[in-house]
Write a structure and sequence with these properties.
mainly alpha
Length: 69
């Protein structure tokens, strides 16, 4: 019966299921970086649009922020 040491390896040197460190493919790293960059750009872009057009739209739709409840 193999025993497990503190590093998650059995006495035969095999990794336990789910505890091995994945190897990163460069394409995967680029894809993840691209998705994160896109998320940041969208977050900043929508925040800027809200800051620019938000007061105008609130005034147009409900008569101002004080009347919005």
């Amino acid at each position: 019966m193999p025993t497990t040491n503190f590093r998650g390896r059995t006495s035969e040197g095999e990794s336990m299921a789910g505890l091995e460190i994945p190897t990163w493919d460069p394409e995967t790293a680029v894809l993840i970086g691209t998705i994160l960059l896109e998320a940041i750009v969208l977050y900043v872009g929508y925040g800027s649009l809200e800051r620019l057009f938000g007061p105008y739209l609130m005034k147009l739709l409900v008569g101002g922020e004080t009347n919005a409840r």
